[in-house]
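Researcher: Quick one. three chains, 1160 residues in total.
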Amino acid sequence: MGYAEELVADIGQKFLSRVMPKGSIYSVEASGLHYRDLNTLLRALGNNGAKKIEVHNIYGQRYIGTGFDQKIIVELFGTPGNDLGAFMSGPKIFVHGNAQDCCGNTMDGGLIVVHGHVGDIAGYSMRDGKLFVRDDVGYRAGIHMKEYRDKQPALVVGGTAGDFLGEYMAGGVILVLGLNSENEKFRARYVGTGMHGGIIFVRGEMSNLMSGVKALEANEEDMKFVEGLVREFCFYFGLDVDDALDGKFTKITPVNLRPYGNLYAY
Amino acid sequence: MKSYLPPEYIVYRDHERCTRCQACIEQCTYETHYYDVKDDKIYSRDNNCTNCQRCVVFCPTNAISILKNPNTFRENANWTQEAILAVKKQAETGGVILAGMGCDKPFFTIWDRLVLNASQVTNPSIDPLREPMEIRTYLGSKPDCLEFEYNNNDVALMTKVAPQLCLETPIMFSALSYGAVSLNVHESLARAAAECGTYFNTGEGGLNSKLYGYGDHAIVQVASGRFGVYKQYLDVGAAIEIKIGQGAKPGIGGHLPGEKVTEDISRTRMIPVGTDALSPAPQHDIYSIEDLRQLIYALKEATDYSKPVSVKIAAVHNSAAIASGIVRAGADIIALDGVRGGTGAAPRVIRDNVGIPIEFAIAAVDQRLRDEGIRNKASIVAAGGIRSSADIVKAIALGSDAVYIGTAALVAIGCTVCQRCYTGRCPWGIATTDPKLSRRIDPKVASKRLVNLLLAWSSEIKEIMGGMGINAIESLRGNRLHLRAVGLTEAECRILGVKMVGE
Amino acid sequence: MVVRFLFFHTRNFLGWTELYSLFTLNNRYGDDKDFDGCAIFGMMNLQGKRFPSREPVRAISNMHERGNGLGGGFALYGLYPEHEDDYAFHIMYLNKEAKEKIEKLLHKSFEVIGCEEIPTKKANVLNPPKVWRYFVQPIVEKMSTKTADDYVLEKVMRINTETGKAFVLSSGKNMGVFKGVGYPYDISEFFCLEEYEAYMWICHSRFPTNTPGWWGGAHPFNILDWSVVHNGELSSYGINRDFLEMHGYKCTMRTDTEVLAYAFDLLMRKQKLPISVVSSIIAAPFWDDIDKMEPKQAEIFRALRQTYGSLLMNGPFSVIVARHGEMIGLTDRIKLRPLSAGIRGDFFYLSSEESAIRLVSPFLDKSWNPRGGEPVVARLKIGKLVEVLAK
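Model:
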């Protein structure tokens, strides 16, 4: 028996008291609940046909959404802990608050929308799905993002990002809108270091450019693609699309596929 | 710029034996041999020869020998041939010198300084051919004690033992990434593991979907590049291994040169074709011990706590303390990779200078975990230059539960350790992803070779154990009294926990 | 209550039984240094108003995944208002002989105004030593030309190296450190922290990989009124330690965090450098960035790095450093460890994880993640927050 079934079998009453159905939505009271129990409960609800779950009073529980592959909507109230949505591929998670480190770690599909900021290492090794952050992301966002054919991950940031954005990127898209820092150049350093695939768009200008990446002004075709993503982003946060698209966008791509090709002697 | 580098090897061909069949030209992937129509002779470009021995083996008349170029610089114990050539090469290229396989320098092999016991007179030796000899091993976290419930005459086991891997022989195939080796090699390892009741490790390149059928015998690796890591991959494997480092290149990331990134590799790893597949040096979500714990539990959550999670580290100076932290972070298995560990590509200077011999690492880690009272919480797997069944017995006696073999497995299917894996042109079809070259390995035949190797070594292990008077491997594990040291210093003996011969 | 995982074995590592030497005691396996992963938390009332233990303990306990129960500790400021001007020594003893010897030393060098065993109660902690507190003043005649602080510093180093079985946990005025082997919640129970109030609390939960039974290895580390809690590992520890030993500090705890406490004491108290300069020493900017600066600024940073290069702390770290009236948060220059800051009214918070702050204060006037290598400083007298000090 998996842990889920055992849990429900042994302690069903204790946890079921935390779950309140409100129509077709399940509301879960998470305060004081250990992450293992919380996640098992969420998975059990998902397996039993819940289409939407609200979780209240989250203070640091980790791995919410990890290993979930059901198509389910989860609204989180509070501050989810590290590794939100790690290895996830399916759910749509809405965070009403800030999230912490490793949000969307090795994410393989689905959607995470954060009404606030996230910590460091967001979207590490993302393979598909979308991570939308209303405010800032920390350091090392989007490291080693990948893509293949129709699997195209996207990380969209409403605020700004820290150093090492898109380090080692191999695919996918990162978009930084800088909506909270008007007229300021994007000052993250080491953006796209080791990049060998994928694209980073930054609204406005960059002040620290690495060798190994080239920065051009985004052209019309690029902007059509950006607009699609921005519309979706603004929809979730109730933001104005025209404000978000205002100004020139910088497009950053790798100079060549083998940034370290000359490093070695064979 | 003119190259100042002389050829390393000279191809000697006996032209009278040579039948001009041109098999050597066909087999060589470095364009070393060529046929001169006018002379009706086959000549060789010595500079290209890597001493892979492919042409030697395939020449029907044994006409070819590869000789070490007798033309050397003046003898100098400090400025060796290799040291001089390396400097010249770097002056020509400005590049980091790459090498394949493991450290080839002397001084680091302690196996040869340890001898084994045999029983005589006071304790009978056991004949494995006629009496039972048990080498089955379980890897995983074992509980501190078992609790039972007694109900009249019924006894029920209350303690839930954590998930375990069952090995019919204490030998597993080490991590060889798909990309560093071909899919055919991966398939050969998978088949052999399945047939012998042991496991193979996918390495950091993911698992090609063709091999999902062998998932029950696969340890799936999650490395810093997270290549091919998604839920199904985690679900298919029997265990998950977090790769922190490897013995050949402790502290740095993985290299898969762009030459080896074909369409299929691109699909499995989700990176563009022809790009270098670089694994970052650290896992970027593990910067401190509590982060490792975070990843271990993320993987356990993602797989519903149903399989063991292993952590692979390179053997370095403070391996014992690190291992203790890893066990406390929740790992079920620790894999230690010593300085002799192999690789498809690593900077030679790191391969040969960074890391410690696995013998010391096993002893130190085993002892530390025992001192802290947590030895049962994780199994230890040793890797890095295991060459024979004797090495395996010594490794187990020093404290490991099982071993990983990498180089030995490849040698079994044809490799001659020429150390040119990074070129992607392995003429044996092993360390390449070129579809044409990969066909030189037939999984049916290659897996047979691997099965033969495991059978042969298992028999030898049983013989040695029988000679010691043991018929169960649990009695050998960590039993340092069955080892003695020859030619080691007192400090070395102390660290290994082994007495000197004669004591 | 949050579920706890107990990873340590319940066998006795230390008791009152003799231990052979300082070396074996501190570092039973002879590791180069202890290193650990952890959680840190700091809470300060910017008006200097004292508050009880409940919220800091709740917050640090919330981050229990980051610790493993083998270390927890607290530093409290504003703890002994009735002894405001006396140095309050918290000393831990592993046997009676050590206590006798140290007390003799104390009486020789100090006027001992008060002394008592710190009250404790039964709690889930491993092999507790005895911890006593003393309120002392230096004997003026013996001070010669030293300042009181330097005199105290010298005596603390002496005590720590004297017996191998007695160690000073804290030596500041009107503050004290309580720490040991156990989860932070258990340590707070053991030392009855619910009976104290302080205007500033810094807390730590440890995940050590060495010396699982060693009470002295827990954080906070303290010298005079400097306390440090640290998450990460200093890969530069060897040279940091050697540099500090040249300046008279003895590193006896074999834990890398110790050098942070001494470095702050040396740079800020003795050499009177401001925090903006000190953070540029400890988390020094890259040469590339220095070369891009204005010539006058570049000259300063270059000189700092040339002179104090041995105090550059390499490796991942986030630290909270506290002294009376000031709480400083700092991370390494490439931000390898997390740190979150928050303000709500008169309260200022620093934490490894934002969720711990939110647990005790769900609504924050401001919450942000500071940049790598840039200090966040909260000061008491001015009563307002001094934010990121730009380089």
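Confidence is low (pLDDT under 50) at residues 1-26, 383-391 of chain C.
Researcher: Thanks, that's what I needed.
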